Amino acid sequence: MIKLTKIITKNELVLAKEELDKGNLVIFPTETVYGLGANALDSEAVDKIFKAKNRASNNPLIVHLKNVHEIEKYAVVNNEVEQKLIDSFMPGPFTIILQKKDIIPNNVTCNMETVGIRVPIDETAHHLLDILEYPIAAPSANLSTRPSGTRVSDIYEEFKDKVEFIIDGGESTIGLESTVCKVIDGIPTILRPGFITKEDIEMVIGSCNVSEFVLKEAHGKVESPGMLYKHYSPKTKCLLVDKEKIDEVRKDYHNPIILGDSTIMGDNVICYGDDLVSIAHNIFKLLREADEKQGDIILIQAVDLKGLGLAIMNRLIRTCEYNYIRKNDENN
Ligand code: TXA
Ligand code: MG
After folding, report:
1. Where exactly are the structural domains of the chain?
2. Model pTM?
3. Does residue 91 have a cis peptide bond before it, meaning omega lies within 30 degrees of 0?
4. Residue 5 in this model has a pLDDT that exceeds 90
5. Domain spanning 3-214: which CATH class is it, in words?
């Protein structure tokens, strides 16, 4: 895995704590993406997150804890499958949806009976949580509909007037948000795929379902409200294209920008990497870079759905607003 670290001073953590204690917002690094954090037990502070992000008021936030032993303070583990998931994947890029305890304010969970719990493994996130007397509620640090922030330079302009403190931990190691998983009828169900894959969960639990909305547009009542919204979008229109079709499709545009692997030739091609870990790491920052080139379209090479590929495709299909040209399509 790509490892990029930046030294964080103790002083920075203390300054961040001071702001969080006052009920203010702090952007902090995690191993997945940057988080826009507030004291999870302070409902007024939590309200500020929804305003700063322009986030829908029915899209609940994840609560970040310093360690797994804290889970019982905020949520109920109802069965062995949930416990096994916690033992196997936490701390790490994994969010488990559990029955909520009353101590969590209702605006964190948007009045749902459940709460998303995550224990980040990133050192800075962990050190920050360690000096706090409360957990951090945090969505990804990006304005709603925009690509998630994986380096401070990408989100600085969006948030410089909206948050009190930013901890710059360099580029996020993983680059895609956590796997969101809920046990439904005894079976783990992935509501949002991430670095912990369906295959990883099957290895320890034996079975794992994936929500049908992971690759499809959702409407109405869904398990996870985040499925309903526009997401991960640059300003330029984007189109997902199977590799075999890229050369054909690019001819239809004046100035196409192409995001794909190192075998794609020509002008305005941005290489997103040749393996899934690199693509996950690079994709959000490169979507922003591709946007800056102001082409008439961004063509994004699709990846295989196996393993981490499912998480990448879950983000890209939304980036492209479900517009996807497949290799077997007759005409594009
Ligand atoms: O890696 C991550 O998960 C990052 C870092 C900062 O931890 N956070 C993140 O948060 O991606 P956000 O708010 O951008 O996405 C959280 C997702 C949303 O799709 C939301 O609907 C879902 O988790 N979610 C949160 N609480 C839920 C709940 N109680 N039931 C179902 N889905 C929930
Ligand atoms: Mg998000």
Report:
1. 3-214, 238-325
2. 0.96
3. yes
4. no
5. alpha beta
Q: Ligand 1 mean position to 60 CA, how many Å? A: 7
Q: Which residues line ligand 1 (CB under 6 A)?
A: 30, 32-33, 35, 59-62, 95, 97, 109, 112, 114-116, 118, 138-140, 177-178, 180, 191-192, 223-226
Looking at residue 223, its amino acid is E
Distance of CA 165 to the CA centre of its chain: 21
Residue type, 149: G
Q: From the CA of 195, how far away is ligand 1's center (Å)?
A: 14
pLDDT of 4: 39
**292 pLDDT more than 70:** yes
- Could you tell me if residue 12 is left (phi over 0), alpha (psi between -120 and 50 degrees) or otherwise beta? alpha
Residue 7's pLDDT band (cuts 50, 70, 90) = low
Third-level CATH fold of 238-325 = Rossmann fold (3.40.50)
Q: What is the pLDDT of residues 135-175, one digit of tens each?
A: 999 999 999 989 999 999 999 999 999 999 999 999 999 99
CA distance 258 to 250: 8
